[in-house]
Amino acid sequence: MLTSAFAALKVVHLTSVHGRGDTRIFVKECRTLAHHAYQVSLVVADGNGDAVVDGVSIHDVGRPASRLQRMLRTGGSVFRRACAIDGDIYHLHDPELIPIGLRLKRLGKIVIFDAHEDLPKQLLSKPYLSPPLRWLLSRSFGRFEQRVCATLDGIVAATPSIRDKFLKINPRTVDVSNYPLPAEFDGSADWNDKAREVCYVGGLGATRGIRELVQACVMLQSSTRLSLAGNFSESKLQTEMRSLPGWQQVDMHGHLDRAGVRRVMARAIAGLVTLHPTSNYIEALPVKMFEYMAAGIPVIASDFPLWRSIIEAEHCGICVDPLDVKAIAEAIDYLAAHPKVACQMGANGRRAVMATYNWAPQATRLLEFYGAIAHANKIRVAA
Length: 383
Known about the structure:
By secondary structure, the chain is α/β, with parallel strands linked by helices. The chain starts with 9 loop residues before the first strand and ends in a 7-residue tail after the last helix.
């Protein structure tokens, strides 16, 4: 347990987008801080009410009826609840809450922004925006982000590339990668008990490769099925996918809790992470890739230089062109036809997670960052 004089600090994590069970926010960051004697609150807008879970006080401002209502009203509700808690450090998890960070700073609060993704880059690949509007929004938000984040007390970045971007804006920046908790996953599942299926876990969107995955099902020479654990980002895309011939080989589970995700991965012979080569994904470290590794199953991943360097170094999967439907199908068929190879790749990935790509060193980095922020602001806690 933390013995520092800063251990009793009141920390308030804020999100208007993510649910209370979010892996990065609650499972890893909030629980880590609570375990080390920080007084942790989490403000959410998921409509599931207030609660105390694993030492974290959850404050719910109610689920917005629409995306527009979330943008116009939910931020204000989050701000008012945050002020009522009267924390020492406020940790923001959504770009739309950055204006709240400014208001909290004016009240004399310590404010940290957690950059899960590079939003200016992400905006450039939004399918529902026209190309000129994507460019305008990306440029405008990028300038706003630079101006505001330079004034905040610290930035937590989810990847080294995002860290490097923010270091140019704010020297008080640290990368805390979203690596898994190995104990959450069953890396010892008997390969003989595996189902003839591969899995994809996460949001289902066009740039996340769902169209190519469903199309690949038609080209499979094996009887392998595709197991999907997640929700579609757009109803129109869901309708399109259900109309494709490959959908007959899909098992759709929808959003699953952590136990459900564990079961899906334990049954699978491989995990898919074939995201499109957009600027936001190429240098990302997708948590699902490392969770597949933690579950002891090989990865079929986009052939991006960063991802390929990890997968080839650890001998834990196959890299493919994510836009090449035939290549995806061939990778699935290969692993289905070579279970001993797949099993060994899975074991290699699990070993790499246990040694390197796990949450423990990231938790230490987060705690050290909090300690540095507290010291820099000369916070003292009454005995």
